Records
---
Amino acid sequence: MACMIIAIDGPAASGKGTLGKRLAHHYGYRHLDTGVIYRAVAKALLDANIALTNEAAAVAVAMELDPEKFGHPELKTQRIGDAASVVSAIPRVREALVDFQRQFAAGPPGAVLDGRDIGTVICPDAEVKIFVVADPRVRARRRALEARARGETVDEEAVLADIIRRDERDQNRPVAPLRPAPDAHTLDNSKLDIDAGVRAAIAIVEAVRAGRKPAP
Ligand code: C5P
């Protein structure tokens, strides 16, 4: 039997990373936050003072990524997230990262991947696809709280502007734009706390596995 794959896509700060981690834990699967990969490419370019739009350099960095470095705390910052959305729009950078993501997804016993194009491009045959949405203001508030918890000074309006700019860039790029796969189930996370979001996601997975239509 093929390994189970749960694909979670959604815009910046929609809560898909936390949901992905919790779902993976619930089912005993491995978890990959694919945003970290693009963030790692962006950080490597910024650290080396190379323009984010330098395609050849970005592709070279993407081909040599070291997953051991995916836990670096700076990767979580807003600056790196914004830079990641610039490098991730380069088609050859995306291509260079496809195999790594698919190999991760294929390993036993199963995997949860979250990102922007998991259900549409990376794992179009995933067993369950969830598209997480949340009101931009709610997302900005959550991001600001997380940043403050890390000791960063943040202006929530600036976070909101960043989120809107990033959504716009991710949705309108010609390659692998952020959009729900036709067979994805939408989960509106605006009014749910973490536990309620996880319960809603598990309900979707269970309904799909049982061949039922998930409740709206
Ligand atoms: O999800 P996260 O905020 O960490 O992603 C950072 C950026 O990386 C996104 O704004 C998006 O441009 C890019 N990304 C992507 N495809 C993915 C995951 C992230 O293009 N699968």
---
Amino acid sequence: MENEILLKIDNLKKNYDNITALEDINLEVHKGEVLVILGPSGCGKSTFLRCLNGLEEIKEGTITFGNKGIIGKDVKWEEVRGEIGMVFQSYELFPHMNVIDNILLGPMKAQKRDKKEVEKQGEELLKRIGLEDRKKSFPRQLSGGQKQRIAIVRALCMNPKVMLFDEITAALDPEMVREVLDVMLELAKNGMTMIIVTHEMQFAKEVADRIVFMDKGKICEISNPNEFFENPKSERAKQFLNIFKYKV
Ligand code: ADP
């Protein structure tokens, strides 16, 4: 982990009408760091990631992106969104496009990059995940695990500085979970800055530099994984871990 701060979140708040989804979130994410966000359903994990990707309008608080400054003030969302990659539970691949066209779309349209150059990068990444022979397949011809790995490659082809993962294995059959977790582990080993929301506790312990535990729209504690799983500071985290004790 390097010391450079890639993302800095200050006093972030988010409401949906009269529901407070996030309340005063403060967090620094360092370059090369892997943060895993844990917490009970409805505590605001997904909303937080969506705010970091500009999918939610932010009324209060700021997100500072590296040395570019505050997003929405010093730098426009359009200029940084490509550098903040996100992968969703539901893949979000375009069903009428084959794998390589799904991968090419963002870099060519949003980043105006050369087709050959992106195709080469896409092919190399597909090879790394063992799916180079599925370049011409359509999403419906792929398993859930394969679709999710393609969705990761698609996000990586935008050359992001940080990757956000929102419960990306939650909809997969158990035998496909591992292949997707392994791709994230490899990315972490290669130094990608990542923020991961997951319910896979063993994986969280394995991959995280720090665990961020949330409850009711707030960060309750930030700990290193060993500390968090063996000796959580907050009562709420203890209760939460009890639910998962059979899985850890
Ligand atoms: P988590 O990802 O931890 O399960 P979410 O971020 O999805 O939590 O939700 C946080 C809170 O915000 C919940 O109370 C949820 O019901 C509410 N919420 C999330 N999205 C919306 C939305 N689009 N409209 C209204 N309320 C929402």
